[in-house]
Every structure is written in structure tokens, then in C-alpha cells.
């Protein structure tokens, strides 16, 4: 069972990103502030959920959240500042858009660039430990998946409707056959086996 919050005194937002290990498209991030008494039996790390479950949860999260926001950093920005900084920037942009200003932020992962003067806590595998991070994980994942599905119509050869830009064998082969699209990240090596470890 996930925990409702990391600390109980301050308004807390959970943050997570999606698309960090992709070859193409933006990285998305979400920030979510949930009610103190929020609980949900199904909500968990988005990677542990089916697409149908994520879509159902997204509706419930958006209805229940005190505030939520989703933001992105595109492939060109990723190439300019690198994917780690782009992930932080996407989270900052999501936090900027919250209608309720958080006083404390919890982030999935082990690194984060401080946001304004707000204290934060990094939580390794936090999307499987805290509701707000799990909720952010679901929002970031579903919004990004929809974005990549829309791009699929423009470049069907890369099979983005299925792989969402991640480095599957079919995606890598398509890049070798057709070259890169305008949405590919030029600083990512298509044949780099290390990319598979970032499939988050």
C-alpha cells in the first residue's frame, strides 16, 4: 500500500517524468497535489499498470487532485541541455503551472535540481511508495503516450503508436532504414545498448 505523503505539515506535491529513455519526442513531467486523505487501491507506478488502468486512473486523479499540471521539454531542448537537465526542467515547468503552490516537493529518483526556494526530497522508486508521485507518473505517462500516438500518423514507419519512441528493435531498424525524423533526439545514439536501462 502506498503512503499518502512524505510529511504532513506542508502542502506537498509529487513529481515524476516519462520518456527519459526514448529516442524521439519530448520528455514529459507531471506535478500533483493530492488531498491528505487520498487513497486508491489500484494506483501504483505507471509501469506496473496496463494502458486501460492508466487511462482510468488519470480521470480519477484529475478529479481528486487539489492541483495538477503536466509539462514537457521537446527533443531540440533535450539535445541542447541533455536529458537529465531536460527532465528537471519539465518538472519545474509542471510545478510552475500548479494552481496551488506547494511548500514541499517529493520527486521520483535520486537527483533533482532545486525548485525555487522550496525544500524537496528525492525518493528512489518513489512512484511505488507515495500516491502523489504515482499519480504524477500516471499523468506524465498517459499524456506523453497520447502525444507520441499523434506523431505516429506523421511518421508511421517508426511504430510510435506501439513503442512511444522507446528504443525497440523495430524502432532502431526503422531509423537505420529511413534515417531520423524531425522529432528524433540527435544526441541519442540509436545503437547504444545503454538506452535500454533508461526505459522509464
From TrEMBL:
Pfam families named in the record: RNase_HII
Tagged with keyword Amino-acid biosynthesis: no
Species the sequence originates in: Pseudopedobacter beijingensis
Cofactor: Mn(2+); Mg(2+)
Protein name, as recorded: Ribonuclease HII
Binding site for a divalent metal cation: 16-17, 108
Taxonomic lineage: Bacteria, Pseudomonadati, Bacteroidota, Sphingobacteriia, Sphingobacteriales
Record-annotated RNase H type-2 domain positions: 10-200
UniProt cofactor note: Manganese or magnesium. Binds 1 divalent metal ion per monomer in the absence of substrate. May bind a second metal ion after substrate binding.
Family: Belongs to the RNase HII family.
Purpose of the protein: Endonuclease that specifically degrades the RNA of RNA-DNA hybrids.
